[in-house]
Amino acid sequence: MEIEVKKVAELARLSLSKEEAILFQKQLSAILDYAHKLQALDTTDVSPTSHTLPLKNVFREDQVIPFDCPEEIINNAPEAEDHMFKVPKILE
Amino acid sequence: MTSNQNLKNQFLVEATAHELHALLVNRQLSSVELTEAIFERIEKVEDKVKAFITLTKEEALKQARAADEKIKKRENLTPLTGIPIALKDNLCTKGILTTCASKILANYLPPYDATVVKKIKEAGAVIIGKTNLDEFAMGSSTENSSFHPTHNPWNLETVPGGSSGGSAAAVAAGECILALGSDTGGSIRQPASFCGVVGLKPTYGRVSRFGLVAFASSLDQIGPITKDVTDTALLMNIIGGYDPKDSTSVNLPLPDYRLALQNDVKGIKIGLITNLLGEGISSEVKEAIKSAAQTLANLGAEIIEVELPSFEYAVATYYLIAPAEASSNLARYDGVKYGHRAKGTKDLLSMYGETRREGFGPEVKRRIMLGTYALSAGYYDAYYLKAQKVRTLIKQDFEKAFEKCEVLISPTAPTPAFKLGEKVADPLSMYLSDIATIPVNLVGLPAISIPCGFSRGLPIGLQVIGKVFAEETILRVAFSYEQNTEWHTKRVSL
Lengths: 92, 494
Known about the structure:
The structure holds 2 protein chains of 2 kinds. Helix content of chain A is about 35%, strand content about 5%. Chain A has helices at about 5-10, 20-35, 70-75, and strands at about 80, 85. Chain B has helices at about 5-15, 15-25, 30-50, 55-75, 115-120, 165-170, 190-195, 230-240, 285-300, 315-330, 350-360, 360-375, 380-405, 425-430, 440-445, 470-485, and strands spanning about 50-55, 85-90, 125-130, 180-185, 200, 220-225, 270-275, 300-305, 405-410, 445-455, 460-465.
């Protein structure tokens, strides 16, 4: 099975080297060929299971709970300024 | 150090939590003494085993002194007070590195504790460090760690299993008394099997996932890795229960799992999964499992042969569903709020792409690609939706089997531990080593792996699977087996 590695990598926001693209092409195709065996099963009247518990939406009050050390959050940022995350320019 | 002291320390690092608890509360042993013995052991064997990413000796000794204080005053004592525990490095620990064995999180200091970590601390246990894993828990050998592979203490040329390989190896090597792992497709049970220790994956929803770095949210579950079934029950009493911070944790009363530790399986109907004793399962594993079934039968259990034909499709199903969920969960690693960011990129999109290229290892990239593909327009129905429907068929197979029996048994893994490097180049062969554990996660059931034999010096694990929220039944069967065999008393020589 051929997969468009370049397009999938773009969707995943993943830059790949040439070597990685070639390797993944081969490995992912092998995995998808294996996964193809599911097509042999008749699932016409079978409903999908996305989750094993019979949970419905879980609601709670939208309350503000103060966090005691916001600077510990900001300290993890690769770049920050004045308690804000700094990102490359996105508008000209 | 005198040879007497050496002998004592050897005893301490090989003991179980419940044995040590008795010594601690009788003041024959202090938690500081015990913790020092553990760190001495780590110093001696960690170069060979490499189970840890981070060690927190100073903080651990502080916690040990606090535990000794509590014991002295008889204050808030729990079975874990003063007991050294290791945590898989995908559990958030406030102010202590939590890397997921990934370069992208190499410097991440969580601003909060996972709920299980909070509970462990409140119980007075001593956290000694963070254990190695396959990057983001994706793998079956701990070779996918971005830092270093872990070695199986029973044979250093073999893998400890994965992804909780560091936790299982640390328990087996006497580098901690207890450990926590996480299990998405077998990541607690398979390494427990390879390292000759006990590992429990609780029912989905039994233990809060708050603060567990997400891999595949509908499958992930935290659980204990210990030297015997009693310690697993004690640890479950601490970490289990509803948590408002995890909306998928279940609001059911938490039983006292100690009460499940009964040496009695008379009349219990146990299903032996015959299709996990066929092709692809090594002969020594088959023999060990059949012999374990015989032991249980001799103890009065009724063994019924059952077949769950849909298992043949479980690995394919899992490797569509888990990567799909992972590709979504791992979208958060974008170089903005935490973790690694690539330098010198020209715009936002290339910053994302380069950050993720530099930060993720090959297996994580493979799964992100696979999951993105399975969810993408034009392929969603054929792959992701199809896999979810097959998931239903697997669930129905389990339901049918559980009409006839209370628990199911099988091998935990098709073979004993394989050699380091053996499966690295062929991801599919690595995936197939999870054939016996994956179906359990897809359906959210509880299952335990306990030692049931050895082959050429390597441990073999027996998997006991229960109905939803029936941890007590599998603990009872596991405990009965353990009380009537000697496998759990074996220790490594390093």
